[in-house]
Every structure is written in structure tokens, then in C-alpha cells.
Amino acid sequence: MNTLNIVGIGGGTGLPMLLAGLADDTAVDLSAIVTVSDNGGSSGRLSESFAMPAVGDLRNCLVALSGSDSRLADIFQYRFAAGGGLEGHALGNLIVARFS
Description:
alpha+beta
């Protein structure tokens, strides 16, 4: 069986949707080039605080690439409801920011 190589370029909502739709197809080898210009919510706060690119779109693409039944998706999409400075942050954003 031939493998189709697909590279998605973008960010926002569209790229993760495309990746999620193709992630479970075994005949497709997926890659993504993700923009890091998001400035809202958790991603924007981390970007400002640590002078780093915004990681929210990257997190969403990693989740999409992990497949539909992934525990990684649950962990990365978890948002803190309280906790002082953690409130509103997505755990995946904090993980990606730590290793950036």
C-alpha cells in the first residue's frame, strides 16, 4: 500500500481540524507547519510572560495528530479552573512552554 505524504500549513482552528480528520488514516503520513501568532487566553499569557512564541495552535495540532482515542488529547486539553496563576491555562500549553 502506498503512503500519501501530507503537510498542513496554518494555524487557528482549520489546521487541527484537517489533521484530526486525517490522523487515523494509516495510508497517510502527516506533518504540520504551525503558525505561532495566537495572542489570546493561556497562549497569549504565556507568550507575554516568557517572551516566547504562542503555543496554543501548536498544542491543538499535537492533540489532533495524536488520534481520536488518545489520552494525550485529554491531558493536553485540560484547563485549570482555579489555582492562582494556573487558572485558565491549558496543561498542554504549560508542557509545550516548558520544553520550548
